[in-house]
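Quick check before the chapter quiz. The format below is the same one you will see on the exam, so make sure you can read both the input and the output lines.
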Amino acid sequence: MSGRAQLMWDEAVTGYDFGPDHPMDPVRLALTRRLIDAFGLDREMDVVAAKPAGESTLRLVHREDYVEAVKAASVDPRAADTAYGLGTMDDPAFAGMHEVSALIAGQSVGAAEAVWRGEALHAVNFAGGLHHAMPGGASGFCIYNDASLAIARLLELGAERVAYIDVDVHHGDGVQAAFWEDPRVLTVSLHEHPRTLFPQTGWPEETGADCAEGSAVNVALPAGTGDAGWLRAFHSVVPELVADFRPQVLVTQHGADTHFEDPLAHLAVSLDAQRAVQVACHELAHEYAEGRWVALGGGGYAVVDVVPRSWTHLVAIAAGREIAPETVIPESWRQEVFARTRQLGPVRMTDGRWPVQWQDWEAGYDPADRLDQAVLAARKAAYPLRGLLA
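Here is the expected output.
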């Protein structure tokens, strides 16, 4: 197995563009790629542009009629069929939509193939993580579900156990739905509670179909959860589940929209806590999956201050060259930020909260605390189905 990591990148992925008034501004991808370059991380990795996902690959997850609907909307956006979630406010149709969506999916599938075949130990597609797309429809800014496609490809290649960890502020509903009946895939999602945030799913009681009970785990966090609670929730659930499941590959989704500056959600997590979870996922991959790690991006709508820094930390961790939080950001990148956005970019790779502090679950819990109630609800719902003590 190669010790080098792969960075999946094709400049054309920045064509995933729903228009100037849409919160998913592709500048977040371009600025992340430039920040990675500013730190010289691409010299530590193999930068690979995978081919777009073909129709047979897309159909590992998506229905044929849906793929055809995306193609039709891609040719003529005015003819988008809203019955498939296309041409809506969340998912406006645009010319070339099929091609660029398939390209993003191809990067995640290529990452999975490289890691499974031993061509890379870790692979990162920060343009991916489009976890809301369903087998038969677009949803939540997501056309094709690259995370599900990567997992489906791993299964096709012979993987028997794949763990998917989703720390986006929104529930990873599309991935959960894709593998609801498949005990070979463990999906764990930490997200803002469905009472207060799209897609209104991800309740603790959602634990998988009868034939795959306990294969879905959902930690629904109260709005306002900050660093200490977020990290406590992660460490109170994820490591124990991964240790029990013993995945052959770990696939993780790192939406940056848990951040306190994100305009679309209500958690209060810092960049430093996001980095801490990225480090933890890397460690889990080495401890339980022989280092096989596919890391994806996801949501994140503070496109200058948060997303590029968060995902550059992710890439640095995968490359084996972690960036210290207090590191000053190269001035060349800040100049590019201003040139592209007329905004002033951040100065350091931290929110000033490093090292982040949290209390381990084993130290005890408070039954009156809303965060602890959320963790306990997830454990009580899923753990007994897996033979674990809640």
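If your answer matched, good. Strands lie at 5-8, 45-48, 122-125, 162-166, 185-192, 216-221, 249-253, 293-296.
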